[in-house]
């Protein structure tokens, strides 16, 4: 257990498909590792992170199946992957005092299955309650972009590894609404970062400042 029996911080980045999370995390994680060179920094993603969680990810994404997955089945699969990765990666790293940075969390399920799929935000939160338990992010940075822009990026992208990236504007709009509803229920955990019309460099600067500010406060 780290100094003072305090768990290491768990920071999550959320947002619509094609909002630029992966790009921003590739830029951000090395900055955090340089700033906190004396402390372990663990990067992971949901769904995935462990071999078993990654296998469930492949199943949940459903790209290779002809029949459409039932939405409630989808919600439970993501929850199952989450239950594995949180206990095998996130919590052990926190116990070691590491800084954990994650690409997505249960808030993705809240927004996608709860909001866009219509299962209801509070229902999806209940489905994830046991999977998540007390392993919850200390801070979530929600990259907020116009759904129209994310749909445009998805349309011209050659990467089709996520079944949600081929959805239409209505779907993206509902996902965004789900995120905003989740933010209202998060008791301040979710910090909305408006990235509309900003360059990669500008967003990077904002996220570096916000992340380092949070970490400085956490370790003080």
UniProtKB/TrEMBL annotation:
Protein species of origin: Candidatus Gottesmanbacteria bacterium RIFCSPHIGHO2_01_FULL_42_12
Swiss-Prot/TrEMBL GO biological process terms: dTDP biosynthetic process; dTTP biosynthetic process; dUDP biosynthetic process
Listed Pfam families: Thymidylate_kin (PF02223)
GO-annotated cellular components: cytosol
Function comment: Phosphorylation of dTMP to form dTDP in both de novo and salvage pathways of dTTP synthesis.
Keywords recorded for this protein, A-Z: ATP-binding, Kinase, Nucleotide biosynthesis, Nucleotide-binding, Transferase
SUPFAM superfamilies: P-loop containing nucleoside triphosphate hydrolases
Domain Thymidylate kinase-like: 13-204
Official protein name in the record: Thymidylate kinase
HAMAP family: Thymidylate_kinase (MF_00165)
An example molecular function term from Gene Ontology annotations: dTMP kinase activity
Family: Belongs to the thymidylate kinase family.
Known catalytic reactions: dTMP + ATP = dTDP + ADP
Stored PANTHER family: THYMIDYLATE KINASE (PTHR10344), UMP-CMP KINASE 2, MITOCHONDRIAL (PTHR10344:SF4)
Enzyme Commission number(s) from the entry: 2.7.4.9
Domain of life: Bacteria
CDD domains recorded: TMPK
């Amino acid at each position: 257990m780290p100094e003072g029996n305090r768990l290491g911080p768990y920071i999550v980045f959320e947002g619509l498909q094609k909002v630029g999370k992966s790009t921003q995390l590739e830029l951000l994680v090395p900055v955090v590792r340089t700033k906190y060179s004396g402390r372990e920094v663990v990067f992971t993603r949901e769904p995935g992170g462990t071999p078993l969680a990654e296998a469930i990810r492949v199943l949940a994404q459903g790209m290779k199946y002809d029949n459409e997955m039932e939405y409630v089945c989808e919600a439970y699969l993501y929850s199952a992957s989450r239950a594995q990765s949180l206990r095998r990666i996130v919590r052990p790293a926190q116990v070691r005092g590491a800084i954990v940075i994650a690409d997505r969390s249960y808030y993705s399920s809240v927004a996608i299955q709860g909001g866009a799929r219509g299962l209801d935000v509070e229902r999806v939160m209940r489905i994830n309650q046991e999977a998540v338990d007390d392993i919850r992010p200390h801070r979530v940075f929600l990259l907020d972009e116009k759904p129209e822009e994310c749909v445009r990026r998805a349309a011209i992208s050659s990467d089709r590894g996520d079944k949600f990236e081929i959805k239409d504007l209505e779907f993206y709009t509902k996902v965004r609404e789900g995120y905003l509803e989740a933010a209202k229920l998060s008791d301040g955990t979710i910090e909305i970062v408006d990235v509309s019309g900003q360059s990669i460099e500008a967003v990077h600067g904002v996220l570096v400042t916000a992340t380092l500010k949070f970490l400085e406060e956490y370790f003080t």
